[in-house]
Amino acid sequence: MSVPLALLGLLEREPSHGYDLKRDYDTYFGRGRTLPFGQVYSTLARLARDGKVTAGQSEPGDGPDRKRYVITPVGTSEVASWLAEPVAAEPYLQTVLFTKVVLALMLDRDAAGYLDTQRATHLRRMRELSEVKRGGALVDTLLADHALFHLEADLRWIDVTQARLGALAETVRER
């Protein structure tokens, strides 16, 4: 996730204070990983330095004085370009799962046991995500669906790899 671009997008929607940006970021994008206040303000400072946002005068608030940030045309152009670019198609050809299986085989360790443990971990996470879907808002449901589809693909890969462990073991031990 590109925090600077997400913040720029939120600012394009409407000028905001740092506190409001953090709240909106956490609401829509921070599931399980909220954005620290320090990161919000350091990112806003870099965006201002780069001419992508401007900071208004300090305004009194309930706490310390607050600045309202406004996106500039340069920032708007960057958001438009970013939104127009497709996300890189995943998965990449080298994954941690694959690396662990190959190394386990090379080191004469229990690759099948590792795959069983990984399957159990995936299934546990899938149950958690299914629970999120049952009681979640639309944003949570869509994010859970995305994660579930990726986990399902991993499970299919785990099954195929487990079925081919003998052949893979021969391949990696030949070298």
From TrEMBL:
Pfam families, sorted: PadR
Lineage top rank: taxon: Bacteria
Record InterPro entries: Tscrpt_reg_PadR_N (IPR005149), WH-like_DNA-bd_sf (IPR036388), WH_DNA-bd_sf (IPR036390)
Transcription regulator PadR N-terminal domain sequence ranges: 7-80
Gene3D superfamilies documented for this protein: Winged helix-like DNA-binding domain superfamily/Winged helix DNA-binding domain (1.10.10.10)
Name of this chain's protein: PadR family transcriptional regulator
